[in-house]
Amino acid sequence: MRTKLLILSLFICPTIAFAGSFDYEYDASLNNYYGYTDYTKNYNKLHKQNNFNSSLNLFGRAFYEFNEKYTTSLIGYFMIDSAKDVENYNQGKWGEEIYLLTETPFGDVSLGQDNNVAYNFSVGAPNVGAYHVNNTELVNFITNPNWHKKGHNASYKTLNSTYINTDGVSMKANYVTPEILGIKVGATYIPKTYSQSGLVAKQAEYKDEEAYILGAYGGWNIWDYELETSLGFADYDKNDREYSAGFSVYHKGWTLGASYRKTETGANDYNLNEDSLFDSYREGRAYNIGISYTFGPLTTGISYFDSKAEKAHNRDKITSFSNKYQYNKNAAFSLTLAHLKSIGEDNLIKNNSEGFAFIFGLELSL
Length: 366
Description:
- This protein has 366 residues and is mainly beta.
- Helices cover 4% and strands 54% of the residues.
């Protein structure tokens, strides 16, 4: 299959001479964390308070440059996690992203396991180190009953990201235009929405439906301020429609960012599951906002994430204060204090959660 995709990518550039060069690059990182969780009294007997977590991330790119304008690459990401609570890689606790990318003066085309263009363009609240505001690693330290994925069993009662990630890294085709005046636009076609790395449950009736996604990105330097913006739209057949927007501004070490996402269903879509609410994210909204400051080897930041289901009572509120000290080019230390309040569809203790997590990290890279 990969051979066929490579041949197809070469046909995209039929006028290119083959007097080019082959090269490759790679990278690896190992993130190690210890977290202590101080749950609110009602929940401290239900969940572990001491948690260890390590994740290994590998990147490789082999590329052939036909000339300075045309390049074809085979790109791979591989990741594995030692104690992932929400198993949202495309193979559960481990996963891969493998796709072909052809770059030309007429735009870039990718085929394979990749994120959609709206996700790739997205900007919002800044991350500090390996800790993410969206699809946060906090779930490995504080249990969130609204987000669950073990094997093929998935339940997302609220959105876990302001970026459009419903399809995860399912097989897809992406096209991105050349940049004009700081602006790029793109489109994605997805033949089957389901991926274990996305939000769609294996038991969902719409899991094998197709999807169409559009995205736009703008980046400009205005009076020494670096401004980035993003817009996204997705039409998941028989599932939902999704809209996203975000911005980020950088100036002299300061970064301010925010993003928003809205989902809604229509008359032609399957109804929300009313028994277990495993897909109530399909009628919801989420937003984040954050600010960070970098001075020398230290970066510090604070962020807020809020996600709510519109047709149920489920809601998540996450406040994070994150710090990273870059010791050298290969090692960094991190410290994060985060608070989660997860509100369930009822008052049962198993469907709610609240607490603080103190997370210490050692981040290693090549």
